[in-house]
Specification:
Layout: H1 14-21, H2 30-43, E1 47-51, H3 54-64, E2 72-75, H4 81-90, E3 93-96, H5 108-114, E4 119-125, H6 134-144, E5 148-152, E6 159-160, E7 163-164, E8 172-176, E9 189-193, H7 196-205, H8 239-250
Parallel strand pairs: 2-3, 2-4, 4-5, 5-8
Antiparallel strand pairs: 1-9, 6-7, 8-9
Helix pairs in contact: 2-8, 3-4, 3-7
Length: 255
Amino acid sequence: MIPIYKPYMPENLIPELNEILYSGKLSYGKYGKQFETQLKEFIGCEYILTINSYNTAMLVVLATLGLQYGDEVIASPISCLASNQPFATKGLKVIWADINPATGTLCSQDVESKITNNTKAIFHNHFCGYVGEIDAVNALGKKYGIPIVDDGIEAFGSEYKGEKLGNVGTDVTIFSFQTVRLPSTIEGGAIVFKDKVLYDKALLIRDYGIDRTNFRTADGEINPDCDIMLEGYGGLMSEVNSFIGTKQMLEIELY
């Protein structure tokens, strides 16, 4: 078989990768923070978290929004399986809205017809890089008091009215950096928040719900006064994946 394409990787990664692998510093750290800074600058956002997988990013978002078993969400019927499987994991009831056949993205009029008192969130998938009816869907969120999540699994770098997705006024935006996505970190993702309160909550949820500023005592032992009050996940991106992300971002405009 002749592949149509293969995932892009920058050249000359090995020397620095070897240095990381044998440094003893493999978990989220210097490169994780650098990658987040590059993403902030590229997107034009303030509150962003890198995550070790898109699936975990979705679960972090669902937990941050406080969605519970049986809650209803509106989503697209032609979005990626990865976008919808977490709904099943959390036991959410998915209400499928129709799409605009010209773009493959949600039809805002049909979305509004599906909104009920039980609707807890709207997941606005941007299909194959085509940005959907952002103003119209976001307006529905404001009208009905429902959080809007831009699902950018296939739309990193896409623009709307001159702004990158993630900086278009939506409450939350999710990106995938999995093998076939851009930028590929082999596995990973990111979440952008418009609101600092949600960002601060997700910061804890990403790391098992732990407040690291109070997790250790002065002598390095686990602090008995540090309690975990939130649902949490092991969602920190490793230094290896983060490093690859930093190198990908240097060439992102060349893709």
